[in-house]
Inverse folding.
């Protein structure tokens, strides 16, 4: 058996320190009413994220036809374009 397989594996792991985001697509925001403000509280109440402590990233998958004011930690460029294209606003937390 080679030496590198017999030695214990040690070193730095970034797993404990990495930032994890809960992913939400633009199409999932269709369940909210037109003109609504969508923040962490509303996403938690709708069951889209687990808790208020979660970091949220909005991705541009799907279509949005409603005018919403969305607040999240991160947005993809396509998500910002789709939200602004439907008349809504994006806000970074």
């Amino acid at each position: 058996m080679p030496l590198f397989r017999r030695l214990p594996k040690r070193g730095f792991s970034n797993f404990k320190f990495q930032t994890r985001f809960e992913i939400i697509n633009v199409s999932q925001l269709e369940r909210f009413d037109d003109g609504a403000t969508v923040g962490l509280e509303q996403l938690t109440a709708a069951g889209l994220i687990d808790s208020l402590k979660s970091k949220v990233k909005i991705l541009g998958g799907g279509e949005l036809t409603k005018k919403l004011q969305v607040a999240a930690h991160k947005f993809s460029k396509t998500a910002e374009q789709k939200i602004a294209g439907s008349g809504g606003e994006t806000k970074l937390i």
